[in-house]
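Following up on my earlier thread - several people asked me to post the actual chain instead of describing it. Fair enough. Here it is, all 134 residues.
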Amino acid sequence: MTVYTKILTPSDSNGLDLQLTGTVLDMSLQAIVSHVPNYKFSLRDTVTNLTRIVKNQDATSFEFQIMPWSDIGLRTAWLDVRDKIASANDYSVLSFGLNYNYSDNVRFSAEHSSINNATAADVSEILLTTFIAF
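Reply from S.P.:
Thanks for posting it. Predicted structure:
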């Protein structure tokens, strides 16, 4: 079994994001656009100490959430990742989700994601999470 260590040089990675929030028809709205034009990292084999995988990617994401009720939010997101070294490693993810804000510091989320990968069959997954803030 090969175990990799991720090596990330912070100066080699940068990005920006824009978040807009507001209210329309008494519903809270949130839109987020993010772009990471330069995300470089490598994976090193922990046994042989050789660098096996080098990545140089850029990524763009869009997320939109609407809160039809004060405690329930509906959201959708799209992520597009492009590998600058090998385009066969490109992929995109489309997600739909539901948030339930139980209280100010507890949130439950359900999300369905469809991953479109150029080198393999498309993948679909469901993610259930709980957020608890202290």
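The chain has a mean pLDDT of 84. That should answer part of your original question.
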